[in-house]
Amino acid sequence: MPIPQAASLPELFRAICDTRPAAVAVVDQDTSLTYAELDAAAEAVASRLVTRGVRRGELVGLQTDRSAAVVIGILGILKAGAAYVPLDPAYPEARLTTMAADAGLRFAVADPEHAVKCGLSEHQAVPTTADGAAESVDRVVERDDAAYVIYTSGSTGRPKGCVVTHGNVLALLETALPLFEVDRRDRWALFHSTSFDFSVWELWGALATGGTVVVVPQQAALSPEDFLDLLIRERVTVLNQVPSVFRYLDLAFDEADRPALDVRYVIFGGESVDLEVLRKFVAKFPEERRPTVVNMYGITETTVHVTFKLLDEQALTGPARSPIGVPLPHLTVELRDEEGRPVPPGEPGEMWISGAGVAAGYLNRAELTAERFVTLEGRRFYRSGDLARRSVNGELEYVGRADQQVKLRGFRVELGEIESVLRGCPEVRDAAVTVVTTGAGAQLLAACVVPHDGSVTAAVRRHAAAMLPRHMVPDRYVTVEALPLTPSGKLDRRALDGLVASGRR
Question: Which residues form the AMP-dependent synthetase/ligase domain (predicted)?
Fold first, then answer.
């Protein structure tokens, strides 16, 4: 469905709120808020931020639990003319403090005890709970203003913050939502952490169409059985999933004897889809209740989604292993070689992406921004590092990474960052990390560690858990005397995979 024209996300929300003030905007396990109630709660947060001296364009931390508070916090920060920086409470304190310092945060919408874990004081925490009426905040916000900064993995061991504008998000909503038959009757599960930009699509897909955001609590996000119960209980109609996570939900669906669901759309992103799993999944539904399955390739630097592919029966049984379809209307994708030259039809090439979704760049990283966001022939591109090939019908098939960055459970991970952290462990002389796939199809991080002396697995696990988010902590460790090298002296990653698979010391 078309969405109202707006110059900012708060303006878009206001347009929907004016037409549907009494409709339910957000629910969690304890709370249900109408659009008017959500608006009032967000205004209160915005008022507190402005009273504290938050300026237009300032970055404000966001660290809330998985409840309606996360929606209130995001809207409140945006209404204040600021941009939010997700600070996932599950991240180690060391990483949170690094992110908060890099972003120059003066305040965070958070509980006081959470703010302290980010290196801020209790006085720098701004609550989302209401404490009386608040004056309306009338801040001008424009399309070029930053909406959020999400930190992604960095190859040097230092996470990098990607600056995404209101215009970037609005362009996504304006062009992608009309590709779906969604409206005010839909209920979108907000399943993903705000540190993963899939959450932007989940949140604003609902709010921009006058629908309902169903916030998934932490327990349900970690338990496929509990999540399935929530989908049934809350009558969720739009479900967004990373393929590796969806596999566990599919198993829970079978174990529960395939209960009736209201889900109309299952939208995938974050990593390659498993067509065999999806073929079997859709076949479990009677044709009249079969959900529409869509694959949407995307990356943080191009604002959540880049392409759209309806996974119909032809796609599910076709020759392409990972079909990602065609670019969204506001973007173009060109396939180029290492020298930046277009590749011949049918040949794999790096995806260079241009258009209104391309982000502003990396926060405080001018050199890296210039390297990855390039201008060619008067057009600004983001060099994705992802490889694809274009078929004769013009559609794209994802091939893999051009470097050692990987997609794991929806998160983009630099193996080099994990390796850098492991080498920082006093007991470790050298380390290398790879991804292994189990017989059940699950992907795991595995580390080969060269110790200074003896076995160091326990020490390395503790060190990694203290320095890295949970999704970046290796699941397996193999102690080796030396890392395998190629004749040219580079790390032999093929041999590394063999070491990990065999578990050989």
Answer: 15-363
Give the domain range for residue 462.
Answer: 413-502
Domain membership of residue 264 (yes or no) is no
Enter the pTM of the model: 0.86
- Partnered with residue 14 across adjacent β-strands are none
Task: Assess if residue 390 is contained within a domain.
Answer: no
Backbone angles phi, psi at 252, to 5 degrees: -65, -35
Q: CA angle, corner 442, sides to 437 and 447, nearest 5?
A: 50
Any residues with CB less than 8 A from the CB of 287 and at least 6 apart, and which?
none
Q: Contact 450/477 with Cβ under 8 angstroms?
A: no
> Which domain CATH number covers 55?
3.40.50.12780
| In a domain? residue 55 | yes
pLDDT of 136 strictly over 60? yes
251, pLDDT greater than 70: yes
3-class secondary structure, 490 = coil
92 lies in some domain? yes
Rounded to the nearest 10°, the torsion over CA 217, 265, 310, 322 is 30
The H helix count followed by the E strand count for the chain is 16, 26
| Domain end marker among 222, 246, 279 | 222
Backbone phi and psi for residue 499, each to the nearest 5 degrees, phi listed first: -60, -45
Closest alpha carbon to 210 in 83, 482, 25: 25
* Phi, psi dihedral angles at 212 (to 5 degrees): -120, 135
What are the structure tokens assigned to 198, written together? 């899939």
Domain count, the chain: 2
Domain endpoint, select from 175, 202, 222: 222
Instruction: Report the distance separating Cα 18 and Cα 63, nearest Å.
Output: 28
Supply 134's token pair: 């608040």
How far separated are the first and last CA of the chain, in Å rounded? 58
Burial of 279 (0-12, 13-18, 19+ CB in 10 A): middle
Confidence label for 157 from pLDDT (cuts 50, 70 and 90) = low
CATH number at residue 458: 3.30.300.30
Question: How much is the average pLDDT of 91-114?
Answer: 94
